[in-house]
Each structure stands twice: as C-alpha cells, then as structure tokens.
Amino acid sequence: MNTHNLQTKTYKRLAVAFSGPSDSGKTTLVVKVANILQDRGFKVAIVKHDPKDKARFDREGKDSDKFSQTGADVAVVSPNRTTLFKQSTSSIEEIIELFKEFDYLLVEGLKTLPLPRISIFRNALDESYFEVSNAIACDETINTKQIPQAIDILNLNHPEEVILWMDSNAKRV
To answer: How far apart, in Å, do the first and last CA atoms of the chain sit?
Structure first.
C-alpha cells in the first residue's frame, strides 16, 4: 500500500457558544446550524450544559443506566458510536481533547466559558446577557434598537447568517 498519497484531514476546530433564556430557541438554532454544516461536509461536535443535572444516560432499567447508577464511569461501544458517561464534570479543554477531530464545536450554555458567544432571544430581551454576548440572534419580536451597538445582530431565522458570523468570529481551539 502506498501511504504517500494518504492525506491527513486538517480540521478547522472553531468553537462558539450559544446562550439565552429557556425557550428562546437555542437548541433549535444549534440543530439548524449543525445540520447545515454537516450537509456541507464539516464535522460538528456539540456540548450541552445541563445545569440542573437532569440528563439521563439511558432509559431507566436498561443495562447502561444500571451501570451508571453504580457511580462508575461507563462507556457503551457499538459499531457506529461510543457513548461515554463520566461521573464528574469535564472542563471544555477535556471535552475538546475527547472530540479531537472536528471543524465546529457548538456549546449550548456555560456562560462563563471564554468563547465567542451568540445569545438568542425571542419575545423579550434579557439585558443580563449583554456583557457575555458578542452577537445576538433574534427574530422580529425583538426591538434591535435596545441592543448595544458593540453587539452584532443576527437573524434567528437565517442560520446561514449565524454560520457566516461564526466563520469570522469563532475561537480556534
């Protein structure tokens, strides 16, 4: 086998965070952006912050859920995926190292992370997000004149616009 022709893929490794109040559309926007990027051939990784510790590893009563209930770290390996359940929190650096190969890392939540951040609003603005936001994605229900001029304004209903902003502003990790 001639290995000289094998090219190693270089990943962009761009990271951006999404914040906003409950039911503002964060998850919907992250899903739309991820689907568009993947349709374009990019590898996407997503981190979801679960501040209330509600996420379950598997359905109750299933083996992997029983294993996780022991308090042990659990990995479920199948032909097409690996699912990891770690019994402690992880830093963003640990998660980046775990994913390794990605073009875009989309983080939902974790307001304290030092990442370029898009905050999402529908129906009402929450000014407490202004200090951690580099951009605001909103729809027509928001009066954009109330948003400080230093913050970019994106159309919540145009995920392509959000991707263009990410390409210019995301942090290379």
So the answer is: 34
User: Which tokens in the block code for residue 34?
Assistant: 């991820």
- Which domains are assigned to the chain? 9-55+89-172 (3.40.50.300)
pTM metric for this prediction:
0.86
Higher-confidence residue of 73 and 5: namely 73
Only one residue has tokens 């379950």, namely 56
Length of the chain: 173
Q: What is the rounded CA–CA span in Å between residue 56 and residue 58?
A: 6
Q: Which residues contact 12 (CB under 8 A, 6 or more apart)?
A: 42, 102, 103, 104, 172
